[in-house]
Specification:
The chain is α/β, with parallel strands linked by helices. 27% of the residues lie in helices and 15% in strands. The longest helix is centred in the last third of the chain and has 13 residues, at 246-258. The termini are far apart.
């Protein structure tokens, strides 16, 4: 098939070349046998209302996370890939609520031909591209995953060791209310078995101004403004976290592929894991007592 770059559809790191696909390209290739389109979300509601023709849903809570909000094991992921019709030769395009989390996960296991749709979900439909309410059921496949590339992943132990460490920074990309401990979940709720706040020594870096009016990523110059000069210095390692990994993976994707910076890892357990572990240190904002 004709590919993203015109020659080979691989995820090259050249300031976005190859990893982002525009809606016109995807529309033209929706029925290519090697293409698999995956919508990543936290519930089936949006997918059931409508989705890109042929897309398969990956529900973050049901498909990608275990009961403790950790990444599912290799066997579970292989089963997910199999029922999604994915093989090692598949061209994968992610879209939806957290496409970068899917991109990061497949990159973690070395799948090279993986991409993100460079427009928002509403833009796809508003611009007249193909959509459906019919659930896609591709033929089952077998996918034996190789080793993980742990250079792009951090566990809660890695984060614990990074607190106050020289040469590595923890970036919390959640909202101010989450960072300050006013809420546990992005929706505003607290967690009965968890503590709200942030990891000690973490730098608060809420991500704004990432997308244009179509939901496409902004230019590299604009994206750089979402980070500090120190964030862009490859001499300092970065560990990104949020609540379930979606926003952290977005920051990782931007830094690694659109700004071409090495040394960035995603703590995929993020606050949903950290805030529920009884032994992890947690800080929250201190506010003056009312007079």
């Amino acid at each position: 098939m004709e590919t993203v770059s015109g020659t080979t559809a691989t995820s090259t790191r050249d300031a976005g070349g190859g990893v982002l696909v525009d809606p016109e390209w995807l529309e033209a290739h929706l029925h290519d046998p090697q293409l698999r389109v995956l919508e990543v979300d936290v519930s089936p509601a949006a997918y059931e209302e409508w989705h890109i023709d042929g897309a398969v849903l990956w529900n973050i809570y049901q498909d990608l996370k275990d009961a403790d909000y950790r990444l599912v094991d290799t066997d579970a992921l292989e089963r997910l890939l199999g029922r999604s019709g994915i093989t090692p030769d598949s061209t994968i395009v992610f879209y939806g609520y957290a496409p970068a989390l899917g991109f990061w996960l497949m990159t973690l296991y070395g799948h090279a031909d993986v991409h993100i749709l460079n427009c928002s979900r509403p833009t796809w439909r508003a611009e007249g591209h193909s959509w459906t309410r019919t659930t896609s059921t591709p033929g089952a496949t077998v996918y034996e995953l190789g080793d993980r590339d742990d250079r792009i992943r951090a566990t809660h132990t890695t984060v614990l060791e990074a607190i106050g460490a020289v040469g590595v920074a923890l970036l919390d990309v959640r909202s101010t209310a989450e960072f300050d401990g006013e809420r546990f979940w992005p929706s505003g709720g607290m967690e009965p078995n968890g503590r709200a706040g942030h990891v000690p020594s973490a730098i608060h870096r809420p991500l704004d101004g990432l997308y244009d009016e179509r939901g496409a990523f902004c230019s590299a110059d604009d994206l750089r403004r979402a980070f500090s000069p120190a964030d862009l210095d490859p001499a300092r390692g970065l560990i990104m976290y949020c609540t379930i990994g979606g926003r952290a993976a977005t920051a990782w994707f931007i830094l690694t592929y659109l700004l071409v910076r090495d040394g960035v890892r995603v703590y995929d357990g993020s606050w949903a894991e950290w805030g529920r572990l009884p032994q992890t240190p947690v800080e929250a904002a201190t506010r003056p007592e009312p007079s």
